[in-house]
Amino acid sequence: MIVLAAGSYGLKVLGVTALGAVVERRLGPLVSLLPAVLFSALIVVMTFETAGELVLDARVVGVGVGALAVWRKAPLLVVIVGSMSVTAALRLIT
């Protein structure tokens, strides 16, 4: 994840220099995907990792419910409330 962040920052610096036009033509489509990749990596790390260990708890189920709701094209509010509710219910039970 650090490599992706450094690469993203490096590409922004290159955009200011004379090499910006060359980089934009060749790497434009790739650079446009970097924010989505970084955000996805952050979600995965926050869901499956605690104190450097793999953890499978209520967060995993909540993210799964959210992913299912997004796949079914539910409104954003339904996705958030559904994920939150399932995670809270599982934490209450366990």
Features:
single chain, 2 domains, 94 residues, 4 helices, 2 strands, two-stranded antiparallel sheet, mainly alpha
C-alpha Rg (nearest Å) = 18 Å
Strand order of the largest sheet: 1-2
- Which structural class do you get from the secondary structure elements? mainly alpha
Largest sheet: 2 strands, antiparallel
Averaged pLDDT: 85
Judging from the principal axes of the Cα atoms, what is the shape?
Answer: elongated
N-to-C order of helices and strands: HHEEHH
Helix content: over 70%
Number of helices: 4
Describe the structure.
It is a single chain. Strands 1-2 form a two-stranded antiparallel ribbon. About 80% of the residues lie in helices and about 5% in strands. The protein has two domains: about 1-50, no CATH class; about 55-94, no CATH class. With about 90 residues, the protein is mainly alpha-helical. Helix 1 runs antiparallel to helix 2 (about 20-50). It is elongated and about 60 Å long. The model has no long low-confidence stretch (mean pLDDT about 85). It contains four helices and two strands.
